[in-house]
Structures are given as structure tokens and as C-alpha cells.
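Journal club prep — side note

Before the paper discussion, L.F. wants everyone to see what a predicted structure for a comparable chain looks like in C-alpha cell form. Sequence:
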Amino acid sequence: MEIERKENLSVYYFIKDKFSDSPFITILDAFPEEEFTYPAISVEWADAKAINFELGSKTKLHFRGFVIDIFALTKTQRDEITFRLYNYLDDTIPVYDYDEGFPPSVSPSQMSCLDIEEKNARVIPIYSELVEKMYYRATIEFVAKRNTR
């Protein structure tokens, strides 16, 4: 499995772990394409970028962008989930070697981590005249640098 896929899975399991005390929140490993239960959080990668680090070397700094969508039934629920997650993103996200297996049956070893470089949260307006059922949305976007400590 490629390192980028392991990073994607690590972000997903990081969020799933942080919200383990709230089993009523559905955590999705991609933007939803079918029906799901509210409230929900979807995790999707946005971009990957490598920047040359040293002249005359092939060493690169690797950056990843992620988009996290929050779907809620009420404004309060949306805000609580969004800001809770936004504050969790002050932490470094460990990247695990999922070639060894997946939680909860296996605890894979840590191979690197993602250091959060930049993050932002915003509300996505939903216009009641355009949808049958009113719900509330927000999105968090963040950029992380791969750190192979």
C-alpha cells in the first residue's frame, strides 16, 4: 500500500478515535454518495504536493491537503462537532503501517506522522428553498507536512 493511502487511512482513524465517545456520529472515509445517518463527518484528501528541499538532492518536502465535511441536524450540533474537530487538529496525526492490518483487530506500528501546517473551518450555507430537508454543513480544510521522525 502506498504511503499516501496510509496517510488517508491514518487521518480517518485519527478522527474516528477522537469521536469514539460519540458513537451517534457517523465517520465516513469519503464524501457520501448514498444515504447516511446525521450527524456525520466525511474525510477526503484534497491534494498532494512535493517540493524540492535541497539543491542537488532528490529530497522533497511532502504536503497533503484534506477536506473534512461536517453534516448536522442543527446549527448547534454542527458548531460543536466542527470546533471540537478543529481543535483536535492542533495535534500531530500519527501515520500507521496498515500493511500490518487494521484496527481494532491489529494495532499497526507508527511509521511517520502528519504535522498540521495550516487549517481553516467555514460554514457551508444550505438554502432551504433548494432542498427538501434542512440540515447544516461546515467544512474543515487542512494542510499537513509528512514528518518521518
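L.F.'s comment for the group: The first helix runs from residue 3 to 18. Keep this in mind when we get to the figures.
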